[in-house]
Specification:
581 residues, alpha+beta, Phosphoenolpyruvate Carboxykinase, domain 3, Phosphoenolpyruvate Carboxykinase, domain 2, 9-stranded mixed β-sheet, 8-stranded mixed β-sheet, 17 helices, 28 strands, 22% strand, binds guanosine-5'-triphosphate, binds sulfopyruvate, binds manganese (II) ion
Length: 581
């Protein structure tokens, strides 16, 4: 055995002894292993079989009702220096955190199987990919990790070759919210998660590794780990351009990543290719462009709102080999959620007879897990070890007012300020109040593994290395009218905005300058074929007094980060302020 695997074995042995696990199972990622785990969970009731005629090999998992979303208030970044984690993270001293977690894990796997899950984030042969090993006592985590990552023997072989991997330790524990901690040690490439089985808290390859730990590594190594989808837009000439877009949780990444063009656009030859829907690792290439890989291999997507008119590509992949978490079921045991269709569900997400008095039938943060390869718009480029070149970076949030449908930044530096100043309404993807506007720079508030001030500086530094940087934009699909209705149709029609964005990247497309960035000129967006003509004046309006207030909010936010905020951010803010007055 090589020394690399010896180190891994030693860690596994030590964890098995400390948690007093009854058995140790090394996951190979095979179909046979997956089938055995599913059988076992069907027996234990962890999984319920869905209708095998309509949904072959689809299963439902009902989580503990207290464990349905990420828990930002219980998520920690434990760096040596508190300031390195920054005001954007909860921090604990490393010794204290290790002692706390060690106490929680002591004996927690007694009588249970400990699973060793080797995984690779990114194409297995990509120099941009990184490996990890998650130790978990949850078979639900194992079957989800198999869909979400490259899991099993190939990852283990890469770990053996490379030596370095992220160590993740997870136990569902008692599922007691008072004994729940998601703790990161970026300097030690280590994650420890206790007391939750929910996706973002428990599938450690995803937010914990591919964003919090990876963002920290990326800063040292000169790349970026971002909460972004990656989508290829093919125009009628057959040219494909790639866009990376950062929207906060439950703000439209999965939908945009697999949108279906409006009918007339399809007929004209427009196509959309899905590379990734949640996480994107970006690295400057030798040609001065920015290249992106999707570190994931599957989707852990929001179910509610997924319907035939909004996201038919998602629906098409959800009738086979999918795991559903906290959705409702119909009387013939098909998965169901609000926004799917007008059937009446029989049982809600908790398994109770459906009664509208109990709230929505599916939990608002109910999810599906499915392999990306099942997506009709799946792009082979998702396997390209070099990644895809990015032409545009788009930041977006959920804002009922103020932020127009689309804004273009003047240059990289202005774009970094635009992304860094972003705010969005909170959603059900994390516990806490929904609909509260909060600052969420680059959609990374819950995920940046280090001080936001340093993060902005790093973004600027990456821009310096690019001779052909992507252009940067901000979008808002969620602006509302006085009656609370969305002003923009969204979904497939978002391609109309992406097309303008790509025209701008080519140096075409008509735009009007405003104090906060460029908006499309009156006739620049192609709106032909829309059922109702949207109120473009309202959608593109710049409320200068509102923006002055926004600027004050941004400055108050940045003040918490003190000297760590790069001077260029302040220069950009100052420039906007002057333009507004
Ligand atoms: P995470 O997986 O939590 O990171 O979320 P996400 O950013 O991938 O969000 P997703 O695409 O799953 O969308 C979340 C919700 O927003 C769903 O209910 C969608 O139906 C809705 N949504 C997505 N795109 C649009 C849009 O263009 N307009 C409107 N009005 N709603 C949208
Ligand atoms: C998000 O909340 O941004 C998600 C789902 O993508 S989770 O994996 O739970 O973080
Ligand atoms: Mn997400």
């Amino acid at each position: 055995m090589t020394s690399q695997l010896a180190a891994l074995n030693e860690w596994v042995d030590q964890v098995a002894a400390h948690t007093r696990a009854a058995r140790v199972h090394w996951c190979d990622g095979s179909d046979a292993e997956n089938r055995r785990l599913i059988e076992q969970m069907l027996d234990s009731g962890d999984l319920l079989q869905l209708n095998p005629k309509t949904h072959p090999e689809c299963y439902l998992h009902r989580s503990d009702p207290n464990d349905v979303a990420r828990v930002e208030h219980l998520t920690y970044v434990c760096t040596r220096e508190k300031q390195d984690a920054g005001p954007n993270n909860n921090w604990m001293a490393r010794d204290e955190a290790h002692a706390l977690m060690s106490g929680l894990f002591a004996g927690c796997m007694e009588g249970r199987t400990l699973y060793v899950v080797p995984y690779c984030m990114g194409p297995i042969d990509s120099p941009l990919a990184r490996c990890g090993v998650e130790i978990t006592d949850s078979p639900y985590v194992v079957v989800n990790m198999r869909l979400m990552t490259r899991m099993g023997i190939e990852a283990l072989a890469r770990i053996e070759r490379e030596g370095q991997f992220v160590k993740g330790l997870h136990s569902t524990g008692e599922l007691d919210p008072d004994q729940r901690y998601i703790v990161h040690f970026p300097e030690e490439l280590m994650i420890q998660s206790y007391g939750s089985g929910y996706g973002g808290n428990a599938l450690l390859g995803k937010k914990c590794h591919a964003l919090r730990i990876a963002s920290y590594q990326a800063r040292d190594e000169g790349w970026l780990a971002e909460h972004m989808l990656i989508v290829g837009i093919e125009n009628p000439k057959g040219e494909i351009r790639y866009v990376a877009a950062a929207f906060p949780s439950a703000c439209g990444k999965t939908n945009l990543a697999m949108l279906i063009p409006p009918r007339a656009w399809q007929e004209a030859g427009w196509k959309v290719w899905t590379v990734g829907d949640d996480i994107c690792w970006l690295q400057p290439g030798e040609d001065g462009r920015l290249y992106a890989i999707n570190p994931e291999a599957g989707f852990f997507g929001v179910a509610p709102g997924t319907g035939a008119s909004t996201n038919p590509n998602a629906l098409a992949m959800l009738d086979r080999e999918a795991i559903f978490t906290n959705v409702a079921v119909t009387d013939d045991n098909q998965p169901w959620w609000e926004g799917l269709d007008d059937r009446r569900p029989a049982r809600d997400w908790r398994g109770r007879d459906y009664d509208p008095k109990n709230g929505p039938a599916a939990h608002p943060n109910s999810r599906f897990t499915v392999s990306i390869k099942r997506c009709p718009s799946y792009s082979q480029e998702a396997e390209n070890p070099r990644g895809v070149p990015i032409d545009a970076i788009v930041f977006g949030g959920r804002r009922a007012s103020l932020v127009p449908l689309v804004l273009e930044a003047r240059d990289w530096q202005h774009g970094v300020m635009m992304g860094g100043a972003m705010a969005s309404e909170t959603t059900a993807a994390a516990t806490g109040k929904v609909g509260v506007v909060r600052r969420d720079p680059m959609a990374m508030k819950p995920f940046c593994g280090y001080n936001f001030g340093d993060y902005f500086a790093h973004w600027l530094a990456v821009g310096e290395k690019l001779s052909r940087p992507p252009r940067i934009f901000q979008v808002n699909w969620f602006r509302r009218d006085q009656d609370g209705r969305f002003l923009w149709p969204g979904f497939g029609d978002n391609l109309r905005v992406l097309a303008w964005i790509l025209e701008r990247c080519e140096g075409n497309g008509k735009a009007l300058e405003t104090p906060v960035g460029c908006v499309p000129a009156a006739d620049a967006l192609d709106l032909e074929g829309l059922q109702e003509s949207p109120d473009m004046e309202n959608l593109l309006a710049i409320d200068e007094a509102g923006w002055r207030e926004e600027l004050a909010g941004i400055e108050a936010f940045l003040a918490d980060y003190g000297d760590r905020v790069p001077a260029a951010m302040k220069t950009e803010l100052e420039r906007v302020r002057r333009a507004l007055s």
